[in-house]
Backbone:
């Protein structure tokens, strides 16, 4: 169970916390989302956009975008609520983890916090 957000908008779980994405996160998100194997599985499906196109596309159609951090504040992934449809009350949940944190289990707590 998560606690209410702190003054910076971060939600805290047992192992991870999430916070709204900030412009300082864009280089890291680009590196992990495009330049690693994550790009083949995430919503880009292997496309390799320019940095500017990546940033523009990252937030387009997004209702909420969060960076997943470990307890020390190190970014380990990203979770995003996209394509919200208020009429049908549905949305897509898109997420990825840094390859160094895949398969560990605990980083997925950050996705559940969304």
Residues:
């Amino acid at each position: 169970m998560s606690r209410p957000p702190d003054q910076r908008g971060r939600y805290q779980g047992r192992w991870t916390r999430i916070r709204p994405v900030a412009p300082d996160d864009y280089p890291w998100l680009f590196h992990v989302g495009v330049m690693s194997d994550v790009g083949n599985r995430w919503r880009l499906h292997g496309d390799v956009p320019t940095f500017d196109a990546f940033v523009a596309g990252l937030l387009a159609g997004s209702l909420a975008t969060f960076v997943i951090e470990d307890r020390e504040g190190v970014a380990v992934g990203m979770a995003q609520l996209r394509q919200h449809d208020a009429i049908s009350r549905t949305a897509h949940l898109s997420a990825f983890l840094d390859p160094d944190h895949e398969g560990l289990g605990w980083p997925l707590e950050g996705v559940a916090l969304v």
User: Anything to note?
Assistant: The helical segments are 26-35, 38-41, 51-59, 109-113. Residues 26-113 form one domain.
